[in-house]
Design goal:
With 191 residues, the chain is mainly beta. It has a 5-stranded mixed beta sheet with strand order 1-6-7-4-5. Strands 8-9-10-11 form a 4-stranded antiparallel beta sheet, with no helix packed on it. The longest helix is centred in the first third of the chain and has 7 residues.
Length: 191
């Protein structure tokens, strides 16, 4: 069942657009540690780095330093930055462990989501706090002194459901050609 094609629940095979669904099992199996890496799994999407911490995600070979015309939604709400005409994939404030599934519409979907959806629409659907309650901790370490950690807590009290997530990632960055020293690049997000 998909929601993003026409904003109504329907089977993926009945959707009037080309749609790719990345579910929670695929996210865990992919080994990706950020949202932009997951977009590499979508046919027709290209992911590149503008610099050490800014991703460029685009569709249909449209190459821009800051790609436009791709509507990105979190639970149906746009995260498109109108001032810069792009999406900042690093500071969306969402952890991969909070995602239930991602529905990606390839191709124009302007009638449903507006002019920003000219190349496609990415709808990130998060897990509901009442579905997954309790504490979740994830720690990863890898090459280039990379460290990644997520701590989330979900709880439901009568009519109130909430989720708190803290995420931290850090690596040694790129080597400077002139002095062979490493630059520390770190980011911190909280939801």
């Amino acid at each position: 069942i998909v929601l993003s094609a026409s904003r109504l629940q329907q089977n993926q095979s009945d959707a009037p657009v080309a749609i790719t669904v990345i579910d929670n099992d695929m996210i865990e199996a992919s080994g990706a540690i950020n949202l932009a890496d997951l977009m590499r799994l979508v046919p027709g999407f290209q992911v590149g780095m503008v610099n050490g911490n800014i991703f460029a995600v685009t569709s249909h070979g449209a190459t821009f330093e800051f790609p436009r015309k791709l509507q990105v939604l979190i639970d149906g709400r746009s995260v498109y930055r109108p001032l810069l005409s792009n999406v900042d994939w690093v500071s969306l404030g969402i952890s991969l462990s909070d995602i239930e599934r991602i529905e990606v519409i390839r191709g124009p979907n302007v009638p449903v989501y507006g002019t920003n959806a000219f190349l496609g629409t990415v709808n990130i659907i998060t897990k509901q706090p009442f579905q997954y309650s309790g504490l979740h901790l994830e720690l990863l370490s890898g090459s280039n002194d990379s460290k990644y950690g997520v701590l989330s807590y979900s709880q439901t009290h009568s009519k109130l459901s909430y989720r708190l997530t803290l995420e931290h990632s850090e690596d040694s960055g790129f080597e400077d050609i002139n002095d062979e020293s490493n630059i520390n690049m770190s980011s911190f997000k909280g939801v």
